[in-house]
Amino acid sequence: MKRAFLSLAVVLILGLFLTSLSYAHTPLCSCSDEGDGTILCEGGYSDGSSAAGVKMTVVDASGKTLVEGKMNEDSEFTFKKPNVPYTVIFDAGPGHVVKVPSKDITE
């Protein structure tokens, strides 16, 4: 019984620790219309770490890829504004995906 309680305590403590780590590394991405025919997206993580190299994809309403690239060394991604509704996808892996629909992108 004592061993089972100790095992449960270890699992709970480990779970709390891992949960706090996941909250410390939440992906963030925001995009703005630059007014010159381009869209600028800036990314990063809630703990302040860089998003340099994170895969970026722009898709239309049917899911067709319009633009692909990566965040640069400044955690920025710029692309020509599509003439159709689109979604920007910041994809840093499972659990770290942010989707920004074009209707939410303003100047």
Could you list some keywords that capture this structure?
globular; 1 helix; single chain; 107 residues; alpha+beta; Immunoglobulin-like; disordered N terminus; 4-stranded antiparallel beta sheet
Written overview of the protein:
There is one protein chain. By secondary structure, the chain is an alpha+beta fold. It has one domain: Immunoglobulin-like (Sandwich). 21% of the residues lie in helices and 40% in strands. The protein contains one helix and seven strands; from the N terminus they run αβββββββ. The strands form two sheets. Strands 4-3-6-7 form a four-stranded antiparallel sheet, with no helix packed on it. Strands 1-2-5 form a three-stranded antiparallel sheet, with no helix packed on it. β3 and β4 form a beta hairpin. The longest helix has 22 residues, at 2-23. It starts with a helix and ends in a 6-residue tail after the last strand. Mean pLDDT is 84; it is low at 1-23.
Query: In terms of per-residue confidence, which ranges show pLDDT below 50 for 5 or more consecutive residues?
Result: 1-23
Largest sheet: 4 strands, antiparallel
What share of residues are in beta strands?
A: 35-45%
Radius of gyration, in angstroms, nearest whole number:
19 Å
What is the ordering of alpha helices and beta strands?
HEEEEEEE
Helical amount: 10-25%
Mean pLDDT rating: 84
Q: What is the number of helices?
A: 1
* Termini separation: 62 Å
> Looking at the structure, what is the overall shape?
globular
